[in-house]
Specification:
There is one protein chain. The protein is mostly helical. It has 2 domains: about 120 residues, no CATH class; about 50 residues, no CATH class. The chain has 5 helices and 4 strands. A two-stranded antiparallel ribbon has the order 1-2. The protein has a two-stranded antiparallel ribbon with strand order 3-4. The longest helix has 25 residues.
């Protein structure tokens, strides 16, 4: 086995041991990432365990239910960004549950009749992509040397950034 990242893995496991008793979205994400890591090194049974823990935590957090109308003291319980994050985490749980379970021949934990969470919106995916990639991000083709901009199919074109007097990062420019 390739040892790169083992120290991070052990540190993460140590932190999770003290935090997984209190469900949080970040802990659920960490469990999914540990599952991805185990898939990457071929430890599918261990990946299955981490994914099952993530699914159980996501269900405990109510991610399997539509939360748009949940209220706390008369106000929405979650912002739109939090709702989108919860949806992305839930669907990551679904994908990993199906993948790992089918790979090792075990039953899935999530049935379609057990959840009513909508898919994350495409607009949310576009805004996340714009946060990480600006129009200036380019790659060069190894064959012709011409630069090509990153783009996301289905997302609206990004505005031109010709205004050279602005110094803010792209995701902060309105």
């Amino acid at each position: 086995m390739w040892p790169a990242g083992d120290s991070y893995f052990e540190s993460t496991r140590a932190i999770l041991t003290s935090t997984y008793s209190t469900p949080r979205t970040g802990t659920c994400q960490a469990l999914l990432l540990l599952g991805y890591r185990e898939v990457g090194i071929g430890a599918m049974a261990q990946a299955w365990m981490y994914v099952r823990m993530a699914v159980a935590m996501a269900q405990d957090l109510g991610m399997h239910k539509t939360a748009e109308k949940w209220r706390r003291t008369g106000e929405n319980m979650f912002t739109e960004a939090e709702l989108q994050e919860r949806r992305r985490i839930w669907y990551a749980c679904i994908v990993m549950d199906k993948y790992v379970s089918s790979y090792i021949g075990r039953p899935v934990a999530i049935s379609a009749r057990d959840f009513d969470t909508e898919l994350p919106s495409e607009e949310a995916v576009c805004s996340i992509t714009e946060y990480f990639f600006s129009p200036a991000d380019e790659i060069s083709s190894p064959t012709d040397g011409r630069a090509r901009s990153f783009g996301v199919p289905g997302c609206p074109p990004r505005p031109s950034r010709n205004n050279s007097d602005r110094s803010e990062p792209y995701h902060l420019v309105f």
